[in-house]
Design brief:
With 106 residues, the chain is an all-beta fold. The protein has one domain (2-99). It has strands at residues 2-4, 13-19, 22-31, 36-43, 46-53, 74-77, 96-99. The strands form two sheets. A four-stranded antiparallel β-sheet has the order 2-3-4-5, with no helix packed on it. Strands 1-7-6 form a three-stranded antiparallel β-sheet, with no helix packed on it. A hairpin with a 2-residue loop joins strand 4 (36-43) and strand 5 (46-53).
Length: 106
């Protein structure tokens, strides 16, 4: 498994990433009042999602059946299972956005 690194010190920021040989643009935001992160997803300049909340243990975009989205699951997870939330304190420390390609280890 690979993970998508979020650079919290740059938030809000945008970056391009290749997932299953397709290029996507992520824009990351943080809500300090409620301590959560969101991402916007673009492909080929088209915004596909605004404000997808990072929820621990859930797959991003899991409820979307659309060929334009990444075809590999992206899961908010802590492999050490020490954390159970995606907060400012945990994201990028123990909690990461894992791109699950069918492999069981990273």
């Amino acid at each position: 498994m690979e993970y998508i690194e979020i650079e919290k010190d740059l938030i809000p920021y945008r970056f391009d990433i290749s997932i299953a040989s397709e290029i996507f643009t992520f824009e990351v935001h943080y809500n300090p009042d409620y301590d959560f992160f969101t991402v916007d997803l673009e492909r080929d300049g088209e915004v596909l999602v605004y404000g997808e909340k990072l929820v621990y243990g859930q797959t991003l975009f899991y409820d979307v059946q659309d060929q334009r989205f990444p075809n590999l699951p992206i899961v908010v997870w802590d492999q050490s299972e020490q954390s159970k939330e995606a907060t400012w304190e945990t994201l990028g420390v123990s909690v990461f956005l894992y791109v699950w390609d069918g492999e069981t280890d990273g």
